[in-house]
Amino acid sequence: MAARLFVLFAAIAAAMPSASMRERELKKRATTLIPDTCFSSQSTFESYFSYNYPWGDTHNGAALMKASQATIIHDAYLQLQSNYTGPQSGDSSLQYDSGTVYAKQHFTVEAGGGLDFQANFVAPVAEGCWPAFWLTAVEGWPPEIDLAEWKGTGKISFNTFNTSSEVAALDVTYPTPTTAWHTILVELRAGDDGSTVQAKFYMNGNLVTTQYGAKMVGAAFYLIIDYQMLGSSGSSGPTTTTYFDVQYLSVVSYNP
Ligand SMILES: *[C@@H]1O[C@H](CO)[C@@H](O)[C@H](O)[C@H]1NC(C)=O
Ligand SMILES: *[C@@H]1O[C@H](CO)[C@@H](O)[C@H](O)[C@H]1NC(C)=O
């Protein structure tokens, strides 16, 4: 009996490739969409990224985004700088000049494929500071995946939106925010149903959480590196200049 059961399980195992075997096959198709040298000069950076949001220079917060607030430092990393301005004359809800950039490419998890997004961050976590590294749908909304977001509580958030109310959201402790680079890696993989995307979120090499997004296979995303202020991070913020730094960003595709 035991032997026959073993044969049965072995047959099932052979028919369904293991997750690690599948991952190994997928990795053979690795294609770099954005290389980790993308911040090696202002011109290299500008060949992969555009300034502000895809839709303009404001979004759900108190910062007006300007190209001059996004700079490559030491030919090594991207710095988004937020300057406090006080209520601005054109729109008093705007109180900061800050920086946001988005990738020129759109990113899609194709059926049977996947994408990896990785970067190192020094992200401010004080109240009123709202840095984010996120994917949002090119057509409509959601889908949205917050690859990493900091909402002024000292924590880091990882979120996947099926709808505005159906959201997988996790906040975890974010140690030494201002003094150390933290590496975030998010692996997106197409599910067998041809619709669901699995997102595995890693911080400094450790898997933190796995979330599942509905109707995300085949959906095109914008990638945004955003230093917004106030909004979801609280109603009072710094009156000094603060910075969001990003280094060694890469995007790799395993799509067929
Ligand atoms: C923003 O703040 C920095 C640091 O205080 C300062 O050097 C820079 O001139 C400010 N930028 C603007 C546009 O005022
Ligand atoms: C979102 O949809 C996926 C796919 O149907 C499901 O697995 C996941 O649990 C949903 N997320 C939430 C927060 O309900």
Describe this structure in words.
37% of the residues are buried. Strands 1, 3, 4, 5, 6, 9, 14, 15, 16 and 18 form a ten-stranded mixed sheet that branches. Strands 2, 7, 8, 10, 11, 12, 13 and 17 form an eight-stranded antiparallel sheet that branches. Helix content is 12%, strand content 45%. It has one domain: Jelly Rolls, CATH 2.60.120. It has helices at 2-15, 19-27, 42-48, and strands spanning 31-34, 49-51, 63-65, 70-73, 77-84, 96-98, 100-103, 107-108, 114-122, 129-137, 144-149, 155-161, 167-173, 182-190, 197-203, 206-213, 220-229, 242-253. It is mainly beta. One 2-acetamido-2-deoxy-beta-D-glucopyranose is lined by residues 162, 166-168, 196, 212, 214.
Features:
mainly beta, globular, signal, 256 residues, binds 2-acetamido-2-deoxy-beta-D-glucopyranose, GH16 domain-containing protein, eight-stranded antiparallel β-sheet, Jelly Rolls
